[in-house]
UniProtKB/TrEMBL annotation:
Keywords: Signal. PANTHER family: ALIPHATIC SULFONATES-BINDING PROTEIN-RELATED, TAURINE-BINDING PERIPLASMIC PROTEIN. Transmembrane segments: none annotated. It is found in: Periplasm. Residues 92-188 form the Ca3427-like PBP domain. This is Ca3427-like PBP 2 domain-containing protein.
């Protein structure tokens, strides 16, 4: 007899995309489904959450599509995709130090030192996508990488000369352009829906629990106020961001073709060597 899990440790990145998660917790949507959910923030991003799923620190996590699929494409089997969180692509900004000689993306050609949060993170993987877009992959590794952990550490690294540049989500970064702390030298969109929900492989098979969790997540009506007051964004930036983002209408939907195309891009960028069978990466969750 299988015992249904009702206590979930949910990992997330504490940025504006976390709004539906916070609302589901504050407004009691998890409790309505008899779930006890502990929210665990991971400011260092998706790569850190892959480790946390492996060691049991979290049961379920919401993070960047490219990070999850890179891990799965590299042979990790301790988690599975259970849902699509955000349908729209993510805009990544390329940033350099305020007084850096780097003025544009072209200045990063030929072995620039790129700051990343962790190996396997979105900031790491998107550097390869940037290199692919600029046709810099024909001569081996396009960059050297320097893992520094948090977003703040990345900003410090480009200003103290440790790194030439780093990549992070645009709206999270914009405040620091406005303050003059760092400068934008380019940008790039992900060629895929930006956020997925994953669960530890054993937890993913608890379909009733997964169904209740996914159906609990809701955007809520106070997103602009929450983002601008508690996540350190201006009201104007919060409103602009909300116009660009489309949360999934039904989180349990996972499109195989999207996963395959994403893995193909990651293969072409040198992030994964072979494309696994997509169906083996997903646990299908149905809910009303």
């Amino acid at each position: 007899m299988t015992i249904m899990v009702t206590s979930i440790k949910l990992g997330y990145v504490p940025e504006h995309f976390s709004t539906p998660i916070i609302f589901a917790d504050r407004l009691g949507f998890f409790r309505e489904k008899s779930l006890s959910v502990e929210l665990i923030p991971f400011p260092s991003g998706t790569g850190h959450m892959i480790e946390a799923l492996s060691n049991g620190t979290v049961d379920v996590a919401i993070g960047l599509t490219e990070g999850w699929l890179a891990g799965l494409g590299q042979g990790k089997t301790h988690y599975k995709v259970v849902g699509t969180y955000v349908q729209s692509p993510l805009l990544w900004a390329v940033s350099a130090g305020a007084s850096s000689d780097v003025k544009e993306i072209g200045d990063l050609k030929d072995k620039a030192n790129i700051g990343i949060s962790r190996l396997g993170s979105g900031s790491h993987i998107m550097s390869y996508v940037l290199a692919k877009e600029n046709q810099w992959l024909s001569h081996g590794e396009p960059f050297s990488f320097h893992p520094v952990g948090t977003f703040q550490n990345l900003r410090n690294a480009v200003n103290d000369g440790t790194c030439h540049a780093f990549m992070w989500e645009y709206f999270t970064t914009k405040k620091y352009y406005d303050l003059g702390e760092i400068k934008q030298v380019g940008q790039i969109y992900t060629p895929w829906p930006s956020w997925l929900v994953v669960a530890r492989a054993d937890i993913s098979k608890q379909h009733e629990t997964m169904s209740n969790l996914l159906s609990s997540l809701d955007r809520g009506d106070e997103a602009v106020s929450y983002i601008s007051t508690e996540l350190d964004y201006t009201k104007e930036d919060a409103e602009k961001w909300l116009k660009t983002v489309r949360f999934s209408d039904k989180l349990g939907d996972v499109q195989d073709e999207m996963l395959k195309k994403t893995l193909e891009v990651l293969r072409d960028a040198g992030v994964v060597k072979e494309i696994p069978k997509v169906d083996a990466l997903v646990e299908r969750i149905q809910y009303e």
